[in-house]
Design a protein that fits this description.
Length: 138
């Protein structure tokens, strides 16, 4: 049984998938040439869209089991929110770093991607260790 806070985050993640759906529509316009974009933008838009979807679904999978982990306080928070935070930061880094007319390289906003990588890694390690500890103790 999910805790009320996990249910709330789960609901938010499901609703966030609607934004991924609208992003998919935008991406179809880009690849059909209806929205001008250079090769860098097209590849970053694709990567941002894919990361958003995969990380949101991964977030829901973690939330489905994280209440069983041997974690409390900050560690439980990190295990529960590290991947959802990455699901926001990583796509934002991909999308926002290539805005503008015909950029030749990503802007400084690419740091959002790397901040998301840190959040993803911290969340996965914490959730994995917490669940492993609970499994070995049980």
């Amino acid at each position: 049984m999910l805790s009320p806070s996990s249910l709330t985050v789960f609901g938010i993640l499901l609703l966030a998938l609607v934004t991924v759906e609208s992003g998919g529509y935008f991406l179809t316009k880009v690849v059909r040439g209806h929205v001008p974009a250079n090769a860098l933008q097209t590849s970053f838009f694709r990567a941002g869209h894919a990361h958003a979807a995969v990380l949101l679904v991964l977030s829901m999978a973690i939330l489905a089991v994280i209440d069983q982990a041997s974690l409390t306080g900050f560690w439980f928070w990190l295990a529960s929110t590290g991947v959802p935070i990455a699901a926001i930061l990583m796509p934002a880094g991909f999308f926002l770093s290539v805005l503008g007319r015909d950029p030749e390289k990503p802007s400084r906003l690419i740091w959002l991607l790397w901040l998301g990588v840190l959040s993803l890694t911290a969340g996965l390690i914490t959730a994995g260790v917490g669940l492993l500890a609970a499994g070995l103790a049980g």
